[in-house]
C-alpha cells in the first residue's frame, strides 16, 4: 500500500454521528445486470459499461483518465472489491483530444445521462464517483455544474486548472491535446478557452453536499499536486463545513490506487 500524509479540511468526520438508513435495494434488475462481467451499453450515442456487485444499494461511477475511454475501467480489477454496488463507466467523449471532451459542457451532460439511465434501470438514487486524472477533472466539473447529484467522491491526481497544467506539466501529449482542441497556448491564467473547461471556473458552486477525498502524488510532474491542493482550497472556501480530505502520497507520481479508492468511499 502507498504511504500517505492525510490532511482533513473542513468538518472532521468524527465530530458528529449521523445514522443513515439506506432504502432497501430493488428486488428486480434488468437481465443485463445479472451478468458476471462488464456489459457494454449505450444511451443515445453515449457508450458505457455497467456491472452489478452483490445486492446493490448505490451506483459507483468510474471516470476514466485523460487518454482513456469507457473500457479503461475493466483494467482495474480492484474496483470489483466494492460491496453491493452497480458500477458504471461512461465514455464522456473518450480521450481529451476533441472539443466534445476536455471539460466541455457536453462531457458533463454525457456523464449525467449515464447516471440518470443507471438510476432509471435500478431504482437506486445514491451515487458515488471515482475519478482518475482527466476523470478527476470531470468529477470536479460534475460537482461544480450539477450540485447534489453525488454523495461521495474519491479523486486521484485531478486537474483543477488547464492553463496551469499546460504551463507546468512534464507530459507533452497533454499540451498537444490542449493545442489541438483550444487552438493555441493560454494567453494568461484566465484565458477563457482554458478556464471555461476547467473546474476552477465552476467550483464556486460547490455546496458541501458531497464528501470529497482528493489524492495527490508528491512526485507527480504530469499534474502537479498544486491542482489537487487548489481544488480543496476552493471547495472549503465555498463550504467551510464540508467534508474535504486532501491525501498526499509522497512516493506516488501520476497514479491511481483502485482498491484505496473503494476504501475511501466506504469509510467517508
Concise synopsis of the structure shown:
The chain has 268 residues and is α/β, with parallel strands linked by helices. The protein is 28% helix and 21% strand.
Mind explaining what this structure looks like?
The chain is α/β, with parallel strands linked by helices and 268 residues long. The protein has one domain: Rossmann fold (3-Layer(aba) Sandwich), CATH 3.40.50. It is built from seven helices and nine strands; from the N terminus they run E-E-E-E-E-H-E-H-E-H-H-H-E-H-E-H. Strands 1-9-8-7-6-4-5-3-2 form a nine-stranded mixed beta sheet, sandwiched between helices. Helix 1 (105-122) packs across helix 2. The longest helix is centred in the middle third of the chain and has 18 residues, at 105-122. It is globular. The protein starts with a strand and ends with a helix. Residues 5-28 have low confidence and may be disordered.
Amino acid at each position: 500500500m502507498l504511504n500517505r500524509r492525510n490532511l482533513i479540511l473542513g468538518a472532521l468526520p468524527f465530530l458528529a454521528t449521523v445514522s443513515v438508513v439506506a432504502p432497501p435495494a430493488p428486488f428486480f434488475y434488468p437481465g443485463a445486470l445479472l451478468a458476471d462481467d462488464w456489459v457494454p451499453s449505450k444511451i443515445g450515442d453515449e457508450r458505457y459499461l455497467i456491472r452489478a456487485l452483490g445486492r446493490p444499494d448505490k451506483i459507483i461511477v468510474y471516470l476514466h483518465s485523460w487518454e482513456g475511454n469507457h473500457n479503461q475501467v475493466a483494467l482495474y480489477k480492484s474496483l470489483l472489491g466494492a460491496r453491493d454496488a452497480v458500477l458504471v463507466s461512461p465514455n464522456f467523449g473518450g480521450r481529451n483530444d476533441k472539443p466534445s471532451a476536455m471539460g466541455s459542457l457536453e462531457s458533463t451532460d454525457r456523464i449525467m445521462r449515464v447516471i440518470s439511465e443507471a438510476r432509471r434501470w435500478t431504482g437506486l438514487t445514491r451515487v458515488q464517483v471515482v475519478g482518475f486524472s482527466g476523470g478527476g477533472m470531470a468529477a470536479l466539473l460534475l460537482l461544480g455544474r450539477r450540485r447534489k447529484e453525488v454523495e461521495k467522491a474519491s479523486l486521484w491526481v485531478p486537474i483543477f486548472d488547464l492553463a496551469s497544467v499546460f504551463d507546468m506539466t512534464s507530459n507533452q501529449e497533454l499540451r498537444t491535446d490542449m493545442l489541438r482542441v483550444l487552438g493555441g497556448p493560454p494567453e494568461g491564467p484566465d484565458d477563457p478557452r482554458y478556464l471555461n473547461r476547467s473546474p476552477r471556473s465552476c467550483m464556486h458552486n460547490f455546496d458541501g453536499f458531497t464528501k470529497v477525498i482528493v489524492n495527490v502524488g508528491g512526485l507527480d510532474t504530469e499534474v502537479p499536486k498544486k491542482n489537487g491542493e487548489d481544488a480543496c482550497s476552493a471547495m472549503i472556501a465555498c463550504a467551510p463545513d464540508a467534508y474535504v480530505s486532501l491525501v498526499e502520497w509522497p512516493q506516488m507520481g501520476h497514479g491511481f490506487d483502485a482498491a484505496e479508492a473503494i476504501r475511501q468511499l466506504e469509510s467517508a
